[in-house]
Design brief:
There is one protein chain. By secondary structure, the chain is mainly alpha-helical. Helices cover about 60% and strands about 0% of the residues. The protein contains 1 helix and no strands. It has one helix at about 25-70. The longest helix has about 45 residues, at about 25-70.
Length: about 80
């Protein structure tokens, strides 16, 4: 009597790939533009604050020098 070998069935797995987004698609470009606009806005606000502080400090220094210049002969 011939023994029958048990055969193992191989199961093939379906490979699912994630859909990669096209870097030139409108959604990706719009997202990049939005991100860049937010970064630019943050930089502008930070720079405006720094400039405002510098103007205030410099105007006080100029005012003090003008006062000292005008009062130089009053001693």
């Amino acid at each position: 009597m011939v023994k029958a070998k048990a055969t193992k069935k191989t199961v093939t797995k379906k490979v699912t790939k994630k859909a990669t987004t096209n870097p030139w698609s409108g959604e990706v470009i719009a997202a990049n533009i939005q991100k860049n606009a937010e970064q630019i806005s943050k930089n502008i606000m930070k720079n405006a604050e720094t400039i405002g502080n510098n103007v205030a400090r410099n105007s006080k220094a100029v005012g003090d020098r003008m006062t000292a210049y005008l009062n130089r002969n009053n001693k």
